[in-house]
């Protein structure tokens, strides 16, 4: 590994840590804008019959009457030392709550990613082999269709069709294999659309490149051309896209888990949002940011190793001369 | 005679203009659907004679028919009417989201890309933070912080799109800033601001337009998802996402879900098509 | 004839009917070929023949359909392209052949050398992996032997360091090396026909000559027929036995190189001939020569531009690179000074220093007596009023969102010159000066041709009425005929307005046509300078000499002048 | 060997049921969660109470076999059943009861353990006289103490559990009660699985069974979509769906499923009107509101025939409730007339105005009642016809808690859903005297109401209190202080026909202690 690469890696690592810490502060500030918290709320409900003095006393005991910066500091220093605090809503350690639900979300998210990858591969590579007129056009239409269907609608349809009509899975056992599979399909479909779109664009781009024609001029058939020449360069940029969709997987699980009745990070967020359980929200958002940042860090660090063309970020800009013109810059269609 | 020929001439001109645009039939259909959605939101009363809020309780939960295209809901209201009247808020909120995303994100990207240095570093970290938080989670948190209603959901959706636009704008600006024509304008006496507003902004914005259109479709979905989770306006508002969300409680009467879902899908699909077409023709 | 035997084999197992060999027939025979992309026919009824072991050049301006014909012959037309007519290869019609039966011919019988080496190899695979594909076309089961064959071929095309090349990725090699690799891959399976589509237009002059020499050598050694595509008449004349001149997809003239070259019969071919600078060194003599009188007056007047001892270094990846090294030159008012040199020799950097776009590490630059070093951007603006730049690439130097009128008026607006009406008047005048009509005022650059764009760019610099215009390869992105127009405009403006030019180019033939004085640059240094006559007629440095020798002159064609009747077939009736 | 449990006519033993519920609430700290309408289901099976209150409000012995009080109602003596143990083995004796009473009253606020808000604030202390006798002392007369012991907040928890810090108490599996079931496993936001306690032998006599429960396990599983809960029961994947949508009940019944719509003891669903806020300071406007609502249409449209028309502002099953239907009849003509008299004239757009101000009613849908929004929408239509402009706001639980309060200037009508045990406590809530909640923002201004309140408080017996209560109900409804909508069914159960024998208590919770499931 070159020194330039290590330099680059170190720089990216520092950046990643800064982003995670900032994300923590950002969430705190956003969530603290609203005056209110689960404890005060319960107390204020007249049905519970607390007197104003009692309410004040309880709130003070929780440290909720302290100024926001003080609360932020307490919470932030906890976070840095790995202490996520107690959930205001359930009074249990946030780390326990997250540990309880994380496996389920991880299973769902990874299954969703697998579904998305399979689906996008089938669609994108199908566009290269199906007959021009009919099948291709249809396949090419899939990504935009997938992107246009609200993902809760997909979920509702799947549950009704496969859960109730066909009885493939039991709705009240959302963690069973089949239920997880269908949830993963609901989660994966919109994501597959994004990946497939990039993949198709890349395949089109690459097969239109001069080198593809030259390789065919060397006597390569369609299949070999695809397998040997087009597959790798068109799939490599997808790594970046996949890394970016990690966030979507986590965000999408919010809805998918609600629709499928799964208990996971998403439903934890839902419950915490509706009660403004600040410590839990903080932890989940920070966790999401950590995951996102790490995955993207890995993608950024491996990409230069896989793709020989990439120039490392942060290398000084050089003005190209005519000798460079037509040389290979990486200008891939990485649509957001 | 002359009149007829004049009008047919203009007709021919119109057609030739259309063919000059080379509008594929799918795109034309998409424009038609979007136009219909806009018409629904501007003048809903032209498209239906029913009342969106007051129904006939005795006629609740009727299936689709000639009288009620999309059937009726649990309070005996015509669902088609509710969809039509819900368009304005669905479309307007998506628009708010896009405007927030484009203006805030665009400005951040423009300044970061153009000035570079610490301005860039500062904005880049902010954008990184926004990017690192899953978009939908961010929208949920923001809407929690500012309160649950459709406008706030739109604002939250916009905020969650800021990073995207900032990033695209920044990279476009950097690309444009290094373009030869920018240096050329500099040599011809252009000041920094002149170059920023007259050269960099218009050029960098070109790729932002199709993205904004795409984001419009996406915002409809995100806002619908927020409404679905109950973070939007309450009934009797009839935002599309809300309608689907209410409909899911009455799954015995599936049109309550499928009709608004269909309208949402058709609109978003059309918007996506248009964006794709814009990208291609650019 | 080894390659002939292989051809027979190829057809034997692709063509079940086993047609008898037509030894007498030409190797390639194109007849009535038309190609259209969608509704647009871009090649119409083209015909020509290429004999075994012979070479034929297709020439014509950009967009005339040369590549399209090559692609049609290789059956590699991009999607949407349809070909009609007959293409016979070795006596067999190949246009209508099913892809399955045609494919074995590609590479094995017909090799292809593309135009742009940078984009013609898969960037994410090593050269070796891609070479193996070509080697697979040779009937050789042993992988080690196949690799040896590859390395041998690499040596044959003049590459060094064979194993390194084999293991490299394309971006790790220079354009010239890549083009050698591509030629090697094309000849490795010993095809009987090589189609080379502008194999050198992306390369430096010096490398261009080496590549063309290599092609000629291989053609003779391996008895390959060569279909060479080029827009440069001089190259065609030097390298091909016969020529086909195309314009807008239609054959204008065809015949043996010598006859077409020395006595072009069609107007278009004549213009093509006239526009090649190398063939017409004195074309603009009348416009240029008056400028020489300023050279003598050096003693009385300070030069308009004076660059003395300027050095500029860049630090890239920790390495210090001296782009410009102790460069000095002076340009008297009203004359043209040319900076020539191979790519990367520091020409562009030198003029950026001159314009104040970069600051020199050491040295002084004076324009009209004013020092540039250490000036603020504000005071540089004042200098720029009198000192303007025309860029190499008119496709990137004009803002695509602006209209011509705005583009040309921009400098007036910026420097706040004149009233609205005056500005409009000056815009029209500037456009008229470069020979553009007012109907273009409301167009955007994308609606203009390359030549028109470059004229707009020149008008833009002219509108401020500067004394000095710096031109960085202003025509290298353009066709020869368009180049000739632009050069004419520049020279007549100089004659009319007494402008001073600093002209950067790597095309020495062009420099010879228009410059008064020349500096030859190599690796950041000026190795030789003098008047244009001195440099071109009495070069002192070997480097200058090698540059001069690289200029294609069509000399070979002239040598072959009394040529027997063309033995190839032309659609005579199509040549109006 | 003869086993009575296997004999033909004894109830079927064994079986597992799954109960689908829309939420499992927040914290499980017993004190903080005891009155949550979701967690109440679990506490009802895991814990016992000192007294039992049935669906008709009748109080009967449970862990306390007998009780006495002094004349001033400041000292109470409870006599406990013996042999009762918590599931951690600790005996449920007098000291355990004292520990519970103490923590109900005071909580441990600094640790985040709240007091039970509704426990009498007059509590002084309690003493264990002996293992089976507890004496409770109050600083002032506290008539409500005994009914409070049957209230769903007053669950008995092992003193060992109570001694634990809050974070431990929040882990449900670490909590020990004395109920017929114990927690087998649970996951936050997902499920709670209960298994029966084989040695349980102290059920309330009022339910007709005191031994161990019949069903082996009960699993409370969170499924947040109502339609999914019902569909799961329909397809046999679960046994009980909680809070189904009323629309579906008819067809479910037709399909043979058991539906239950028990009513709790408490106020009906309706509005407490803010009389400080114009125009609701005008009795005529309030009366118009009372007459302008078509309550039958609400039941026909939003609900089913299982819902009952409101006959007063308290549910008709509460002892002491009287029938005031005449005051609640739908009479739009009367309403229009009243509004005309009050100076509200109808404009061209059908909306009434006075001095240029439109007649506006802003409703805040109650987030705890799923059907509340639909009822609001329907009422908006009804009132719209007589010239009211009705705006509907709906907030999530959190925002609702912050923004919507009795007497707040933005809230002309506060939607009540509220249970109580004894009608005698009602009157004191209504005004602001003695820590009252001042529902109608009247303060002390309504002499009639104050007089009735005081008389009810000082009434010596149920009999003498009855006519006073009747008068109170008539007065409040006639004044339009309270606008009833329907009798409230806050808990709707859809149940597989195989499951039988469940019992609903005074707060409408289903107890499966007595239930059996056939194969
Ligand atoms: N894929 C395509 N689709 C449509 N039109 C095309 C396509 N490729 C080329 N053309 C058009 O066909 C004509 C001939 O193009 P071609 O590339 O053969 O010209 P050329 O002589 O090789 O030019 P150059 O010297 O610039 O390479 C041009 O007008 C070009 O615009
Ligand atoms: N801004 C820069 N940073 C680093 N290196 C540079 C920079 N500008 C030029 N160089 C390097 O300086 C050298 C001279 O470049 P320059 O562009 O002046 O050459 P040129 O003679 O104009 O070549 P061409 O004919 O290809 O345009 C090259 O090696 C180039 O890579
Ligand atoms: Mg070409
Ligand atoms: Mg240069």
Question: Can you give keywords for this protein?
Answer:
heterotetramer, A: 336 residues, mainly alpha, MetI-like fold, 12 helices, flat, disordered C terminus, B: 282 residues, binds adenosine-5'-triphosphate, binds magnesium ion, ABC transporter permease (chain A), transport (chain A)
Tertiary shape of chain B: elongated
CATH architecture of the largest domain in chain A: Orthogonal Bundle
Query: Which pair of protein chains has the largest interface, and what are the residue counts?
Result: A-D, 47 and 48 residues
Counted by DSSP, the helix tally of chain A is 12
CATH topological fold name of chain B: MetI-like fold
Domain ABC transporter (chain C): 28-273, 305-548
GO molecular function (chain C): ATP binding
Membrane topology (chain C): Peripheral membrane protein
InterPro entries (chain C): AAA+_ATPase (IPR003593), ABC_transp_ATP-bind (IPR050319), ABC_transporter-like_ATP-bd (IPR003439), ABC_transporter-like_CS (IPR017871), Oligopep_ABC_C (IPR013563), P-loop_NTPase (IPR027417)
Would you give an account of this structure?
The complex is a heterotetramer of chains A (336), B (282), C (576) and D (519). Chain B has a single domain (25-48, 67-281), classed as MetI-like (MetI-like fold, Orthogonal Bundle), CATH 1.10.3720. Helix content of chain B is 74%, strand content 0%. Chain B is built from 11 helices and no strands. The model of chain B is unreliable at 1-17 (pLDDT under 50). In chain C, strands 6-7-8-3-9-10 form a 6-stranded mixed β-sheet, with helices on both faces. Chain C has a 6-stranded mixed β-sheet with strand order 16-17-18-13-19-20, with helices on both faces. In chain C, a hairpin with a 2-residue loop joins strand 14 and strand 15. Chain D is globular, with a radius of gyration of 24 Å. The longest helix of chain D has 17 residues, at 462-478. Chain D contains 16 helices and 25 strands. Chains in contact: A-B, A-C, A-D, B-C, B-D.
Secondary structure layout plus pairing:
The complex is a heterotetramer of chains A (336), B (282), C (576) and D (519).
Chain A lengths: L2 H30 L5 H7 L7 H10 L6 H13 L13 H36 L2 H17 L2 H15 L11 H31 L2 H8 L4 H39 L4 H11 L2 H29 L30
Chain B lengths: L1 H20 L3 H18 L36 H37 L1 H16 L2 H12 L3 H28 L2 H8 L4 H14 L2 H21 L11 H8 L7 H27 L1
Chain D lengths: L15 E6 L8 H4 L5 H8 L4 E3 L5 E3 L2 E6 L5 E6 L13 H13 L16 E8 L2 E6 L6 H6 L8 H5 L2 H4 L11 E7 L3 E6 L20 E6 L3 H9 L5 E3 L6 H6 L3 E3 L8 E5 L9 H9 L3 H7 L30 H10 L3 E2 L5 E3 L2 E2 L1 E6 L6 H14 L3 E6 L2 H7 L9 E4 L9 H5 L16 H12 L3 H17 L3 E5 L6 E3 L3 E2 L2 E2 L5 E2 L4 E2 L2
Parallel strand pairs in D: 1-10, 1-11, 17-18
Antiparallel strand pairs in D: 2-3, 4-5, 5-7, 6-7, 8-9, 9-10, 11-21, 12-21, 13-19, 13-20, 14-15, 15-16, 22-25, 23-24
Helix pairs in contact in D: 9-11, 15-16
């Amino acid at each position: 590994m070159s020194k330039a690469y290590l330099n680059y890696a170190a720089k990216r690592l520092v950046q990643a840590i800064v982003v995670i810490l900032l994300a923590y502060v950002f969430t705190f500030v956003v969530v603290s804008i609203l005056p209110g918290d689960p404890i005060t709320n319960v107390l204020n409900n007249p049905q519970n019959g607390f007197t104003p003095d009692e309410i004040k006393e309880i709130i003070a005991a929780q440290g909720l009457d302290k100024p926001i910066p003080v609360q932020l500091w307490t919470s932030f220093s906890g976070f840095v030392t790995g202490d996520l605090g107690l959930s205001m809503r359930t009074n249990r350690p946030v780390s326990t709550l997250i540990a309880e639900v994380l496996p389920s979300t991880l299973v769902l998210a990874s299954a969703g990613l697998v579904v998305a990858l399979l689906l996008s591969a089938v669609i994108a590579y199908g566009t290269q082999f199906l007959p021009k007129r009919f099948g291709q056009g249809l396949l090419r239409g899939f990504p935009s269709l997938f992107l246009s269907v609200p993902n809760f609608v997909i979920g509702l349809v799947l549950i009704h069709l496969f859960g109730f009509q066909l009885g493939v899975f039991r709705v009240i056992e959302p963690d069973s294999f089949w239920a997880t599979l269908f949830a993963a399909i609901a989660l994966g479909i919109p994501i597959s659309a994004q990946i497939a779109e990039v993949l198709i664009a890349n395949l089109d781009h690459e097969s239109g490149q001069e080198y593809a024609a030259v390789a065919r001029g060397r006597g390569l058939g369609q299949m070999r051309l695809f397998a040997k020449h087009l597959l790798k360069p068109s799939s490599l940029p997808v790594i970046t896209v996949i890394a970016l969709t990690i966030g979507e997987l986590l965000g999408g699980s919010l809805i998918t888990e609600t629709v499928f009745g799964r208990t996971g990070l998403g439903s934890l967020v839902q419950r915490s949002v509706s009660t403004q359980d600040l410590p839990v929200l903080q932890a989940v958002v920070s966790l999401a940011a950590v995951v996102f940042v790490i995955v993207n860090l890995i993608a950024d660090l491996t990409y230069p190793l896989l793709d020989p063309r990439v120039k490392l970020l942060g290398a000084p800009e050089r003005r190209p001369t005519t000798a460079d013109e037509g040389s290979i810059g990486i200008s891939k269609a990485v649509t957001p | 005679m002359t009149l007829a020929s004049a009008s047919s001439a203009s007709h021919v001109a119109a057609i030739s203009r259309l063919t000059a645009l080379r509008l594929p039939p799918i795109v034309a259909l998409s424009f038609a659907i979007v136009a219909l959605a806009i018409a629904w939101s501007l003048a809903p009363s032209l498209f239906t004679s029913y009342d969106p809020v007051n129904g006939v309780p005795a006629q609740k939960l009727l299936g689709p028919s000639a009288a009620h295209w999309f059937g009726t809901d649990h309070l005996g209201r015509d669902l088609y009417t509710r969809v039509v009247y819900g368009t304005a808020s669905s479309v307007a909120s998506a628009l708010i989201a896009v405007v927030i995303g484009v203006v805030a994100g665009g400005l951040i990207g423009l300044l970061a890309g153009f000035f570079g240095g610490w301005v860039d570093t500062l904005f880049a970290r902010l954008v990184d933070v926004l990017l690192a938080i899953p978009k939908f989670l961010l929208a949920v948190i923001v809407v929690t912080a500012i309160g649950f209603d459709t406008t706030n959901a739109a604002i939250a959706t916009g905020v969650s799109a800021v990073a995207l636009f900032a990033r695209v704008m920044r990279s476009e600006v950097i690309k444009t800033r290094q373009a030869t024509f920018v240096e050329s304008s500099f040599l011809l006496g252009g000041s920094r601001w002149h170059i920023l507003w007259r050269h960099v902004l218009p050029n960098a914005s070109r790729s932002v337009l199709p993205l904004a259109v795409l984001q419009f479709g996406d915002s409809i979905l995100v806002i619908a998802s927020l409404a679905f989770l109950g973070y939007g306006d309450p009934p009797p508002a009839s935002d599309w996402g809300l309608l689907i969300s209410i409909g899911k409680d009455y799954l015995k009467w599936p049109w309550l879900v499928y009709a608004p879902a269909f309208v949402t899908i058709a609109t978003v699909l059309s918007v996506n098509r248009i964006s794709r077409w814009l990208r291609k023709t650019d | 004839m080894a390659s002939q035997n292989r051809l027979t084999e190829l057809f034997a197992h692709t063509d079940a009917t086993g047609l008898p060999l037509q030894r007498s027939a030409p190797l390639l025979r194109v007849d009535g070929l038309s190609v259209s992309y969608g509704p647009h026919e871009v090649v119409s009824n083209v015909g020509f023949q290429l004999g075994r072991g012979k070479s034929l050049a297709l020439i014509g301006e950009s967009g005339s359909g040369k590549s399209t014909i090559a692609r049609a012959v290789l059956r590699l037309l991009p999607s949407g392209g349809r070909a009609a007519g007959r293409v016979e290869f070795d006596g067999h019609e190949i246009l209508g052949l099913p892809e399955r039966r045609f494919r074995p011919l590609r590479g094995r019988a017909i090799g292809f050398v593309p135009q742009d080496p940078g984009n013609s190899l898969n960037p994410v695979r090593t050269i070796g992996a891609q070479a193996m594909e070509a080697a697979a076309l040779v009937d050789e089961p042993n992988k080690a032997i196949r690799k040896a064959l590859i390395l041998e071929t690499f040596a044959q095309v003049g590459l060094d360091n064979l194993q390194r090349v084999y293991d490299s990725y394309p971006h790790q090699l220079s354009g010239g090396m890549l083009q050698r690799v591509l030629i090697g891959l094309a000849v490795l399976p010993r095809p009987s026909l090589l189609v080379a589509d502008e194999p050198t237009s992306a390369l430096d002059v010096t490398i261009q000559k080496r590549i063309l020499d290599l092609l000629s050598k291989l053609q003779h050694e391996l008895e390959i027929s060569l279909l060479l595509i080029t827009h440069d008449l001089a190259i065609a004349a030097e390298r091909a036995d016969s020529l086909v001149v195309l314009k807008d997809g239609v054959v204008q003239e065809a015949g043996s190189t010598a006859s077409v070259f020395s006595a072009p019969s069609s107007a278009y071919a004549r213009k093509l001939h006239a526009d090649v600078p190398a063939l017409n060194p004195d074309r603009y003599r009348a416009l240029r020569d008056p400028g020489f009188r300023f050279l003598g007056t050096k003693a009385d007047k300070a030069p308009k531009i004076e660059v003395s001892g300027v050095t500029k270094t860049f630090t890239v990846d920790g390495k210090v690179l001296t782009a410009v090294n102790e460069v000095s030159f002076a340009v008297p008012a009203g004359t043209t000074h040319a900076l020539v040199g191979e790519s990367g020799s520091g020409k562009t950097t030198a003029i950026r220093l001159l314009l104040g776009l970069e600051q020199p590490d050491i040295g002084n630059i004076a324009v009209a007596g004013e020092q540039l070093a250490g000036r603020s951007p504000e005071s540089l603006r004042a200098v720029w009023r009198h000192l303007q730049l025309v860029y190499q690439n008119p496709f990137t130097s004009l803002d695509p969102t602006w209209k011509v009128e705005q583009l040309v008026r921009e400098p007036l607006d910026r420097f706040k010159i004149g009233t609205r009406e005056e500005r409009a008047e000056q815009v029209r005048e500037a456009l008229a000066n470069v020979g553009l009509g007012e109907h273009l005022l409301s167009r955007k650059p994308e609606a203009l041709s390359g030549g028109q764009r470059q004229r707009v760019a020149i008008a833009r610099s002219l509108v401020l009425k500067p004394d000095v215009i710096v031109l960085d390869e202003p025509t290298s992105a353009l066709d020869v005929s368009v180049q000739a127009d632009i050069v004419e405009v520049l020279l007549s403006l100089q004659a009319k307005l007494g402008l001073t030019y600093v002209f950067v180019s790597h095309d020495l033939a062009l420099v010879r046509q228009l410059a008064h004085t020349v500096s030859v640059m190599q690796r950041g240094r000026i190795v030789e300078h003098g008047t244009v006559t001195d440099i071109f007629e009495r070069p002192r440095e070997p480097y200058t000499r090698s540059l001069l020798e690289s200029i294609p002159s069509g000399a070979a064609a002239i040598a072959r002048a009394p040529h027997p009747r063309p033995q190839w077939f032309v659609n005579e009736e199509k040549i109006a | 060997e003869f086993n009575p449990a296997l004999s033909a006519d004894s109830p079927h033993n064994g079986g597992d049921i799954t109960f689908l519920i829309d939420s499992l609430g927040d914290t499980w700290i017993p004190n903080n969660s005891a009155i949550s309408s979701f967690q109440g289901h679990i506490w009802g099976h895991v814990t016992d109470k000192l007294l039992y209150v049935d669906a008709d409000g009748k109080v009967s012995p449970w862990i306390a076999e007998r009780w006495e009080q002094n004349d001033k109602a400041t000292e109470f003596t409870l006599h406990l059943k013996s042999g009762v143990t918590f599931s951690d083995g600790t005996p449920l004796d007098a000291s355990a009861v004292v520990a519970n009473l103490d923590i109900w009253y005071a909580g441990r606020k600094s640790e985040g353990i709240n007091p039970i808000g509704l426990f009498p604030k007059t509590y002084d202390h309690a003493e264990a006289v002996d293992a089976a006798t507890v004496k409770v002392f109050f600083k002032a007369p506290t008539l409500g103490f005994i009914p409070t012991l049957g209230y769903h907040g007053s669950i008995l928890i092992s003193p060992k559990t109570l001694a634990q810090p809050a974070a431990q108490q929040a882990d449900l599996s670490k909590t020990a009660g004395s109920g017929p079931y114990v927690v087998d496993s649970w996951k936050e936001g997902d499920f709670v699985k209960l298994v029966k306690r084989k040695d349980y032998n102290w059920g309330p006599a009022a339910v007709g069974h005191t031994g161990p429960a019949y069903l082996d396990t009960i699993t409370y599983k969170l499924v947040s979509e109502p339609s999914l809960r019902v569909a799961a029961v329909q397809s046999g994947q679960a046994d009980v769906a909680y809070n189904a949508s009323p629309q579906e009940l008819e067809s479910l019944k037709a399909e043979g499923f058991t539906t239950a719509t028990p009513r709790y003891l408490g106020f009906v669903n309706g509005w407490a009107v803010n009389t400080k806020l114009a125009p609701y300071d005008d009795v005529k406007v309030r009366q118009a509101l009372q007459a302008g609502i078509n309550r039958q249409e609400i039941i026909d449209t939003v609900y089913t025939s299982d819902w009952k028309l409101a006959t007063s502002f308290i549910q008709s099953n509460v002892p002491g409730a009287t029938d005031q239907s005449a005051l609640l009849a739908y009479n739009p003509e009367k309403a229009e007339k009243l509004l005309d008299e009050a100076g509200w004239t109808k404009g061209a757009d059908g909306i009434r105005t006075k001095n240029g101000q439109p007649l506006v009613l802003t409703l805040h849908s109650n987030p705890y009642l799923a059907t509340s929004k639909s009822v609001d929408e329907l009422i908006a239509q009804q009132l719209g016809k007589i010239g009211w402009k009705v705006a509907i706001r709906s907030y999530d639980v959190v925002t609702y808690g912050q923004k919507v309060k009795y007497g707040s200037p933005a809230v002309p009508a506060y939607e009540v859903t509220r249970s109580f045990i004894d009608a005698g406590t009602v009157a004191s809530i209504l005004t602001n005297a003695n820590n009252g909640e001042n529902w109608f923002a009247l303060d002390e201004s309504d002499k009639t109401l104050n007089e009735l309140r005081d008389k009810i408080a000082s009434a010596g017996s149920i009999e003498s209190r009855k006519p006073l209560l009747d008068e109170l109900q008539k007065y409040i409804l006639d004044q339009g202080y309270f606008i009833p909508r329907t009798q409230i069914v806050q808990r709707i159960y859809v149940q597989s026909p195989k499951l039988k024998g469940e019992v609903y208590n005074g707060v409408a919770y289903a107890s499966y202690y007595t239930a059996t499931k056939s194969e």
